[in-house]
């Protein structure tokens, strides 16, 4: 019982440490999404890109959209079911970054039905850095050959399109209005699961219970 008490105390303390880590992460992300946008990370910085330090950074990127290479990724949003439109943005240094330009309903998936939104010429977009989502969604794997995408898997999408010099992240475009109204940007959902306090309290209660059990056993032995 004593060993259980020590183990439960250790697990409770670990959850408290995780709680403070999560609160710090949430605070850092809040600061990122409200910060003045900076240029998107260039190729020398790509190897160091990671979720903890870079996701949800507010950035800008300038270049030309290759609409003929856009990818539709299934999405469910507050606007209903439909697709994210991921479009390669070729930058002046020759590199490319995938931009999630936003959401379109299923009945407007054909770019011919939203021609005003197919921006030509140089564009500047503002948005949030997002980390690649490899593999697919829960119980549904991406099918590159069939053109069915359930997650924004940067490496797989760019390989399928034959793109080179592509950033390992993508950018969620902000809500800047687009001619014709589609795609609809600015729908990034930022949500963190934070149950560490509940877990910590649970482990500490178990520690108290096991300590009480150990005390009762010891008293019975001495009686």
Please outline the helices and strands.
Blueprint: H1 2-34, E1 38-39, H2 51-54, E2 58-65, E3 71-77, E4 80-90, E5 96-105, E6 123-131, E7 136-137, E8 140-141, H3 154-161, E9 166-173, H4 196-222
Parallel strand pairs: 1-2, 5-9
Antiparallel strand pairs: 2-4, 2-6, 3-4, 4-5, 6-9, 7-8
Characteristics of this structure?
single chain; 223 residues; alpha+beta; OB fold (Dihydrolipoamide Acetyltransferase, E2P); two-stranded antiparallel ribbon; 4 helices; elongated; transmembrane; membrane; transmembrane helix; cell membrane
Describe the structure.
The protein is an alpha+beta fold. The protein has helices at 2-34, 51-54, 154-161, 196-222; strands at residues 38-39, 58-65, 71-77, 80-90, 96-105, 123-131, 136-137, 140-141, 166-173. Strand 1 (38-39), helix 2 and strand 2 (58-65) form a beta-alpha-beta unit. The longest helix is centred in the first third of the chain and has 33 residues, at 2-34. The radius of gyration is 24 Å and the shape is elongated. The chain starts with a helix and ends with a helix.
In brief:
The chain has 223 residues and is α+β, with helices and mostly antiparallel strands. 32% of the residues lie in helices and 26% in strands. The relative contact order is 0.20.
